[in-house]
User: Which sequence fits this backbone?
């Protein structure tokens, strides 16, 4: 194993999340060992104490829900060359940020005794706290997509990633359109590609975890959902999960 | 093989201004180095491996053998990475592509060249072509407009052209900051077209510059009575292949990479969505 | 061109034999209501009654994503040296054969596309007759029959296939099993003629393309484009499934573990927002109606100006696939009104 000190330094940081994205990285298996030849992991806050070295590339997963986390990010911003948000929670707030009720009402309802003393705030994406250089969305992230992005970042270049809707990726695989043939409320037409159409390829509609495609015609899709017989609440819930904050 | 570049080495990087540099490349393969030939106005696809590929006009003259020069603005992913390269770096080049200026039509007549800003990049190639065979052209006029004296690209070369007596070359800038010396024209580039005062009959006009520059220059040329068929413009479009396949550069019904990038004004206005 | 007949019971044996000498690709059922071209794995899997696959046969010569070369510091540029296998695609309907004819022209125009042709040149086609459904517009596009491109074409009769042997490769295929083929009888020829008429009668929808190129030009500023672009999802599905759409994007991907860069090309769609975006930020077709219009104009006029025919083969895939239910017939009718 390469242990030289001139390898680029990688930091892996987990904020409020299920740690599913860091898990995707540790699940790289044999590629993980090879990755360690190429980069030096200076931080992995879920598993080891900090080496104290500043990362060149900081991969941050999870939403910001604690004042500590925000302070940590501001310090990280001063040290790291690139801050990359990985996973939907870090990119847009994700599942933890969904919901329509007011946070205070929730606290009273769920923690009537202790809720008043909680320091946590409403979950925010990393980019709401510090400038982010690049986002790798997905719930969880797609390993190949992350490696593709790392290939660019290690060269000091902003990654070129698919900038088209999931439908294109899904069709490239020859999948049967779930909207058209099965009447399932798939978010493919409005969602960024990059996952390889994970869900539609196994017959499940896309939930939109990569977030909105920049030219998404949401109104047109809502109209299709209505014609399929979905109620307004159901339609809102479809978009609530990942798509809107 | 189509779409596969030849490797080339960046042998010289000449700083022009904070945004622009002139890059000189030499093909690594000796056979390619010797056989590579092009016409003024053609372009190459430049690869920075691991970053991507972009279409860039050739800036050197077709008679200068053994190397290719590209004048590039630092603007996007590929051009940004190019500017970050150091001498001796390896890049990929393929081409030349596009139709180039119709020099066979232009020869024997008068030639007026009007450039704005980075529009000088392909026109420098045409100017060098003309200088190499000056006797084949009758009157030659060159007008070059830039924002200010600092942003005149190739200013040394341009000053040499101004000094020549067999070419009427006038440089123009929009404004001159204080403490900056400037002997050329100050004002609109359309005004130097008047001052160059080329004949209308028997003159081809090659124009290249940013969209707003085209708008004023074309208006001016038409008002002077130049035929739309004698005005040649170079179109910029997104290109992924340069071979008339990828579809990105299609304007109306034409592939800019094959039927262009040089179009007469008449052909251009007959393409929908031209501007 | 010569004609032979092949009994229906003989077809499995014939395809078994062909698959012994070539990589044979056949239509199979994929989803609940959809089909795909797949490597032959026995006649019981062949969907003889299929009408259209989700992805047209272009995928075999122009894959959705294809590595063009790789670059490594030191080793330089390396291209694939593998020889594509000799292949036969079975079950192509006239529309798809017309689609291949159009792609052949595109990928030969100017400089030949070596990546397309290296596979295309080693592929033969066995056509198969079909009966139209409500999406089929081949009759309207004059692509409902074809006299070239294929090597063999099977016209389905009651008990036999009337087989048109078009090329030497087609003859090679027949000679793999000469015992299965014989001269058509007078009765079979009469049946073949009847079938032509029966098929004609089954075309229920006609798209009127008379003077369509002119009408599209005249209606360049029509509000039809705005209207449809409100419904259109700009999802690119119609482009992906089109047998003649061949736009692509080129991009690099570097494996951080090996520092090897692969240059890829990948299917692209002219409906996509930054399709015509150039460095510096100018977008030549940024607005949705412009992009929606461009696809129709390019299908019906753009290609025709260069190659003398429109690129729509009437296969019906775009109309069948569109999640928003936008139908080519409806768009063209709106332009005519």
Assistant:
């Amino acid at each position: 194993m390469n242990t030289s000190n001139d390898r680029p330094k990688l930091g892996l940081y987990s904020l409020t999340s299920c740690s599913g994205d860091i898990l995707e990285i540790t699940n790289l298996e044999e590629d993980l060992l090879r990755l360690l030849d190429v980069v030096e992991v200076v931080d992995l806050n879920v598993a080891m104490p900090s080496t104290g070295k500043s990362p060149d590339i900081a991969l941050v997963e999870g939403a910001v829900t604690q004042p500590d986390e925000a302070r940590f990010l501001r310090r990280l911003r001063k040290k790291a060359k690139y801050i990359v948000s990985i996973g939907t929670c870090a990119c847009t707030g994700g599942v933890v940020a969904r919901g329509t009720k007011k946070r205070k009402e929730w606290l009273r309802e769920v923690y009537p005794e202790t809720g008043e003393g909680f320091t946590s705030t409403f979950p925010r994406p990393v980019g709401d706290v510090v400038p982010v250089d690049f986002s790798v969305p997905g719930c969880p992230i797609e390993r190949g997509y992350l490696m593709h992005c790392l290939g660019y970042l290690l060269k000091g270049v902003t990654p070129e990633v698919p900038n088209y809707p999931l439908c294109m990726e899904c069709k490239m695989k020859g999948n049967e359109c779930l909207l058209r043939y099965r009447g399932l409320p798939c978010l493919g037409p409005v969602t960024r590609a990059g996952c390889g159409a994970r869900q539609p390829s196994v017959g499940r509609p896309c939930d939109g975890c990569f977030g909105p495609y920049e030219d998404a015609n949401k109104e047109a899709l809502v109209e299709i959902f209505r014609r399929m017989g979905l109620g307004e609440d159901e339609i809102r819930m479809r978009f609530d999960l990942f798509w809107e904050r | 093989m189509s779409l596969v570049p030849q490797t080339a080495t960046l042998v010289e990087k000449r700083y022009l201004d904070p945004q622009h540099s002139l890059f000189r490349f030499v093909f690594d393969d000796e056979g390619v180095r010797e056989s590579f030939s092009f016409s003024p106005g053609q372009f190459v696809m430049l690869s920075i491996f691991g970053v991507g590929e972009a279409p860039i006009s050739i800036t050197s003259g077709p008679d200068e053998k053994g190397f290719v020069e590209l004048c590039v603005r630092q603007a996007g992913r590929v051009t940004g990475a190019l500017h970050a390269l150091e001498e001796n770096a390896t890049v990929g080049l393929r081409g030349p592509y596009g139709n180039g200026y119709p020099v066979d039509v232009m020869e024997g007549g008068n030639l007026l060249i009007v450039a704005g800003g980075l529009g000088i990049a392909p026109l420098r190639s045409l100017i060098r072509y003309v200088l190499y065979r000056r006797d084949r052209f009758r009157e030659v006029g060159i007008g070059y407009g830039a924002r200010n004296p600092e942003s005149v690209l190739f200013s040394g070369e341009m000053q040499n052209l101004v000094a020549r007596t067999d070419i009427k070359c006038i440089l123009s800038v929009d404004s001159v900051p204080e403490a900056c010396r400037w002997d050329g024209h100050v004002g609109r580039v359309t005004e130097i077209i008047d001052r160059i005062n080329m004949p209308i009959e028997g003159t081809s006009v090659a124009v290249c510059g940013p969209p707003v520059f085209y708008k004023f220059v074309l208006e001016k040329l038409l008002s002077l009575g130049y035929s739309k068929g004698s005005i040649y413009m170079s179109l910029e479009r997104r290109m992924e292949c340069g071979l008339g396949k990828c579809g990105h550069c299609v304007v109306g019904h034409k592939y800019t990479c094959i039927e262009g990038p040089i179009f007469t004004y008449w052909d251009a206005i007959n393409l929908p969505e031209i501007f | 061109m010569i004609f032979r007949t092949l009994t229906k019971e003989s077809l499995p044996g014939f395809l078994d034999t062909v698959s012994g000498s070539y990589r044979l690709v056949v239509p199979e059922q994929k989803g609940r209501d959809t089909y795909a071209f797949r490597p032959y794995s026995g006649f019981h899997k062949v969907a003889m009654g299929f009408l259209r696959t989700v992805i047209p046969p272009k995928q075999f010569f122009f894959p959705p994503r294809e590595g063009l070369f790789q670059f490594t510091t030191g080793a330089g540029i390396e291209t694939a040296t593998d020889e594509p296998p000799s292949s036969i695609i079975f079950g192509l309907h006239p529309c798809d054969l017309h689609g291949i004819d159009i792609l052949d022209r595109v990928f030969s125009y100017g400089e030949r596309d070596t990546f397309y042709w290296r596979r295309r040149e080693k592929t033969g086609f066995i056509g198969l007759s079909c009966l139209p459904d409500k999406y089929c517009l081949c009759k309207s596009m004059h692509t409902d029959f074809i006299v070239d491109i294929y090597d063999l074409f099977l016209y389905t009769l009651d008990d036999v296939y009337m087989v048109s042997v078009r090329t030497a490769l087609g003859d090679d295929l027949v000679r793999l099993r000469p015992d299965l083929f014989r001269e058509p009888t007078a009765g079979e020829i009469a049946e073949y003629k009847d079938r032509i008429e029966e098929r004609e009668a089954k075309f229920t929808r006609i798209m009127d393309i008379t003077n369509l190129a002119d009408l599209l030009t005249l209606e360049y500023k029509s509000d039809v484009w705005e209207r449809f672009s409100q419904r259109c999802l700009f999802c690119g599905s119609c482009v992906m499934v089109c047998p003649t759409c061949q736009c692509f994007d080129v991009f690099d991907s570097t494996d951080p573990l090996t520092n090897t860069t692969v240059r890829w090309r990948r299917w692209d769609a002219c409906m996509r927002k930054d399709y015509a975006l150039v460095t510096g930020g100018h977008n030549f077709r940024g607005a949705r109606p412009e992009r929606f219009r461009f696809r129709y104009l390019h299908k019906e006029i753009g290609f025709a100006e260069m190659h003398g025919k429109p690129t729509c083969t009437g296969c019906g895939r775009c109309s069948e696939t569109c999640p928003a239910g936008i139908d080519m017939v409806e768009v063209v009718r709106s332009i005519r009104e």
In short: DSSP finds twelve helices and twelve strands in chain C.
